[in-house]
Design a protein that fits this description.
This protein is of the alpha/beta class. It has helices at residues 11-22, 35-45, 68-80, 122-128, 143-152, 166-191, 197-218, 220-223, 227-230, 233-242, 246-266, 271-284; strands at 3-7, 26-31, 49-50, 61-64, 90-93, 109-116, 133-138, 156-159.
Length: 285
């Protein structure tokens, strides 16, 4: 891929676009809902210009970097405007939810580059993408080139299995990233009752970071510790009694039910004690 136009000058389009500029891709510019948003993306990437949608038909490659819910309407609007990919042009999107078929009305040659990385804003996302994983879904002829491009952009490509259920894949992404962020917020809020705000954040971050690192090294079942893994029913009951926030209690009960199953499968929790914990957690969950 020598040159690229980007539709969507938001968080993902700007962050990934700049990464691809770093990889040596010529960024021709951005198409956005407003000229101002496209100008900001051009300035952030230090390359390209504001493009009109009518210029996309001649582009060698186009990245559609809009949100999941906006992808189909964006393609439909381009088709309605008479825009069609140039012969041999590669059109990509960065959605984890949609498959390549969503681009079929506009292009014959399609692919997906979906970063497995939270991108809360362009600058934070650009930094976080350094070394991040990115899933690649493409025809066999295009996959090697896209994997090489990802590596040049300091990303680690993963090949998505043929026929993969993208809804389940995207749900897993949401749990691993957004779910972990929400859990961090919940735990930090509980720690705030015993620590200063900054220390509550530090305690939460340290525990979650260590748990993730141990899971990466040894597998989640082997990394599990704490009262559920030990079968401490009275401690778990005390936890549930202390959690006055219904959301906190529900999240705790749901995750600890999963932890019970993990501990049983790992052999660290006997079935009788596991049954007691499940009954307790199902009642309060």
């Amino acid at each position: 891929m020598k040159s690229l136009a980007v539709i969507g000058p938001g968080r993902l389009g700007s962050a990934l676009g700049r990464r691809l500029v770093d990889a040596g891709v010529e960024l021709t510019g951005f198409v956005g809902r407003s000229e101002g948003s496209a100008e900001r993306a051009v300035a952030f990437c230090g390359a390209g210009r504001v493009l009109g949608a009518d210029e996309l038909g001649g582009a060698a490659a186009v990245l559609v970097g809009v949100g999941d819910d906006d992808l189909e309407p964006t393609v439909a609007a381009l088709v309605a405007a008479g825009i069609r990919a140039a012969t041999g042009a590669l059109w990509l999107h960065a959605s984890g939810y949609h498959d390549r078929a969503v681009l079929a009305p506009i292009a014959d040659r399609t692919a997906i580059l979906h970063p497995l990385c939270p991108i809360p804003d362009p600058a934070t996302g650009y930094a976080a993408l350094d070394g991040a994983l990115i899933s690649v879904d493409a025809d066999p002829a295009d996959a090697p080139g896209l994997h090489d491009l990802a590596r040049r952009a300091r990303l680690q490509p993963l090949a998505l299995a043929a026929g993969a259920d993208r809804t389940t894949y995207h749900a897993a992404c949401a749990l691993a990233a957004n779910g972990a962020t929400a859990l961090h917020d919940l735990a930090a809020g509980l720690f705030a009752a015993v620590f200063e705000s900054a220390d509550a954040n530090r305690a939460t971050s340290a525990l979650m970071r260590q748990a993730v690192e141990l899971s990466a090294q040894h597998g989640s079942r082997a990394a599990l510790s704490g009262p559920v893994a030990r079968g401490d029913r009275d401690v778990v009951a005390g936890h549930l009694d202390s959690l006055r926030d219904p959301d906190a209690r529900s999240v705790y009960a749901g995750l600890m039910r999963r932890a019970v199953d993990m501990a049983v499968n790992h052999g660290s929790l006997d079935p009788e004690r596991a049954a007691e914990l499940r009954a307790l957690l199902e009642r309060d969950g």
